[in-house]
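We include the pair:
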Amino acid sequence: MAEEHILGIWDGHDSGAAIVRGDEILYALNEERLSRRKLEIGFPKLAISAMLERLNLSPENIDQVAVSTADFAKTLTRFFPAMKEEYYKIRRRKKRPGLLTPIKKRAKYTLTEWPPTGISRKLTHRLVRKELNECGLKDFELHIVDHHLCHATGAAYCSGFDKAAIITIDGIGDALSGGVSLFDNGKLERLSTISGKESLGIFFEHVTNLMNMRELEDEGKVMALSTYAYPLPDDQNPMLEWFKVDGLTLHARYGAHRTYQRLKELLWHFPSEQFAYMAQRTLEVKVIELVQNAVRQMETENVALAGGIFANIQVNRLIRLLPEVKGCFVFPHMGDGGLALGAALSLNADRNGVTSYSFQQIYFGLDFSEEEMETAVKEFGFPYTKEEDIVNAVGALVESGSIGLWLQGRMEFGPRALGARSIIAHPGREKIKDDLNLRLKRRVWYQPFCPSMLRSTAERIFEDFHDQTDPFMTNAYLVKEEFREHMRGVIAIDGTCRPQIVSDDTPTPPKFKELLKDMERRTGLGVILNTSFNLHGEPLVCSPSDALRTLRETKADYLVLGDFLVRLPA
């Protein structure tokens, strides 16, 4: 009997789809890359269609489908999609809030605390089945997978650990904001849950919103700003008293609405960077305490993490450096955008007993042929050359201070650019960082860019490397003082950076590892500035046409498509 294809879907914030077969992840693709709406909330019809086409499968070949989350609030938005569309537009500043917006927002946080019921599950089955029928799927079994189980399976089954503490923390899903599980020899056992009423994720969402940033999107800016504050002693940080870690769970003093009001009161008394520091520190202290309790109780030195909170690289760094922790894996699409893959992995474990995947790379998206690339360039009418040695040509451009756009191979899964859809530049020049902000990224001045580097370089320049390679940009590392000048464009004010660390055996897109080695020959360090290939407010580019439009709009110095070097007309 042929191995079955299992489709996982998520149709909420950062919707997406994934297909697995046996112990292989075939595709994982977020809808935003095709709809071109950042953090898309619509049903992932484009992603499903694109994956089936690339796999040469008809919809009838899919007879097992897993969907994440069936709580009351999610089911309501499936029934009334205009509700989530309105929230999406207001949250992303595409629509001005109305007089009723504060009331609606309060209702939203209340409704998300309602757990799944028999009715919400039946409605989810009916509504999701209808959407899948429109995608051409007819005769299939539909399974609903718990939100935090999706997070936990992604972390556990992709970690490479035989035994680990699995910790998930986010805003809320299926009325929970987190959970702690034991993964031991292929078995995943949930030991505790954290109620949605005790959510550290919603707490940090409120902080982000009160600082006039977009919740569910700009939390990284809060973390970055916190590094500019004068450190406040913990006993003078009132936010720390609002949460209490109790064994493997968490308790909050206030509900979501009262927390928002208390934060609003505090913000009036403190400057923004101090307010950000207090919130960041609260996150660090409480998450670290929970992790310590988990590894001690489970008698393991390994942790695997998922959920939006673990996009916070400073929290992850503190976990990585705990004396109790020897192995720390962060699922690279830690937020809700990773739920589709988690759902597929969970169902595959239930049906086929697969609980371990080779996870050396996460290039699970679409790729394009040389012919497709050249056809797109000709349609745009841009001058181009096909280089015999594209690495040498690009290395010289980077060394000279040029800012380039780079598209190679299959697209990355997750929010980080990992050498498939990247903007590249020299890592050590302040002017380049400023140019990137002004011309392309329009990021806030205090938010640093990130580097990609060879493992041999990481071993030399980091004070806290400790033999843990991170190929997915999920952790922070401290750069030694003597190397900070060379890394000026990619480090925060505290000397840390979020690197992609590439070992000799790390799979990367064509030519990218060679480019890092070329930079090592030119500069002495195998490192390059690598930030996501997108305009401000847009998703990463997917296709050559997306890349060429971005070249035209940003007026970047050049674009690399495979072996083609493309420039704007003179």
About this structure: The chain has three domains: 5-148+343-347, 161-330, 370-566. The radius of gyration is 23 Å. The domain at 370-566 is CATH 3.90.870.20 (DHBP synthase).
